[in-house]
């Protein structure tokens, strides 16, 4: 374990499985956590906020931010923020960026998290992006993270030095499930569904990826589903 007892990390925590595991990895690396959650007009905004608060309790996070970003709904162009666009349920098409992509969402999240990190004197930001087994979003890649890290450090104070840490970026969903179980992550508190807030739909891209990860890891997903 890295000794980061005097260091702080901002963790971008949606309440999903990936961001929750990423936050647990940050804590196990010795960082004092500052949790940041974004309400951006997504369909499952209320359920994700519940997950965020529940997970913060489990992690004993005292310093947390709940940030409202209303303009994503105004921009639209994504099935997550524009209810006139149906959330796809037919599975992912290779090489095609799905309509659930929210334009430059992670870039905006990381920019806000960087402002918080600078204020809090944090030297790391953890984000649970996944490149290999994701929906093909362009803001989840190693190259994007590297580029925005450079831009953030170029655009902040000289004594600010922020490292963006992506512990899951090259993992498959099955490996994420296995690592989460190994670290006793409370997966029953997490929420990944793009469509529903009571029982996960089981058919949207996010549910399919999650369920397939559990299946490949020979584990049972502890959250309720309408269909699986």
TrEMBL record:
ATP binds at residues 13-23. GO terms for molecular function: ATP binding; ligase activity, forming carbon-nitrogen bonds; zinc ion binding. It is an enzyme of class 6 (ligase). Its cofactor is Zn(2+). SUPFAM superfamilies: Adenine nucleotide alpha hydrolases-like. It comes from the Bacteria. It catalyses: 7-carboxy-7-carbaguanine + NH4(+) + 2 ATP = 7-cyano-7-carbaguanine + 2 AMP + 2 diphosphate + 2 H(+). Zn(2+) binds at residues 193, 201, 204, 207. InterPro entries: QueC, Rossmann-like_a/b/a_fold. Signal peptide: none annotated. The keyword ATP-binding applies. Gene3D superfamilies: HUPs. Transmembrane segments: none annotated. This is 7-cyano-7-deazaguanine synthase. It comes from Aliarcobacter trophiarum LMG 25534. The lineage of its organism: Bacteria, Pseudomonadati, Campylobacterota, Epsilonproteobacteria, Campylobacterales. The gene is queC.
